[in-house]
Amino acid sequence: MEIVNGSDLGMGLKPRLESGAMLPHVTDLNLFELAYLVCRKEGPAKATEVVGSLRKAGYFEVHDVHAFLDDAARLKCGRALSTVDCITIAAGESLAIPVLFARHERELDAELKKGKFKVDLRFLTDSNS
Questions:
Q1: Is the domain of 51 the same as that of 82?
Q2: Domain match, 71 and 27 both
Q3: Which of 16, 65, 74, 104 could form an SS bridge with 21, CB 3.0 to 4.6 Å?
Q4: What's the whole-model pTM score?
Q5: Which of 77, 94, 76, 93 is nearest to 85 (CA)?
Q6: For residues 64 and 67, what is the distance between their CA atoms, to the nearest angstrom?
Q7: Which of 63, 87, 109 is the last residue of a domain?
């Protein structure tokens, strides 16, 4: 979403994606979330265009959310996080890759204080991400 919005965080990440220095992994649920957020701001045609363009650009590998649902349910059971965040973290655990969030959010920070996750959570707002 940060890249789509053209934020400083997104623009800082874009060169790393374009150069191939990193290949992010997302689930189809993450693309769903992006589509509805763009749709609310700019309408359904723009949402379809944005998601389609991102898929064609090859900036990331898309995974079927179903592969991560059992682990996401386990996370959701024990953690006060959104379903999307649980699925995203479960995907990172399954793929053995760090999970990158745009910024710290109250719920994530509270859960990090309670205990670590099986995977490293990183944030674009932190200088070392």
A1: no
A2: no
A3: 16
A4: 0.84
A5: 76
A6: 6
A7: 63
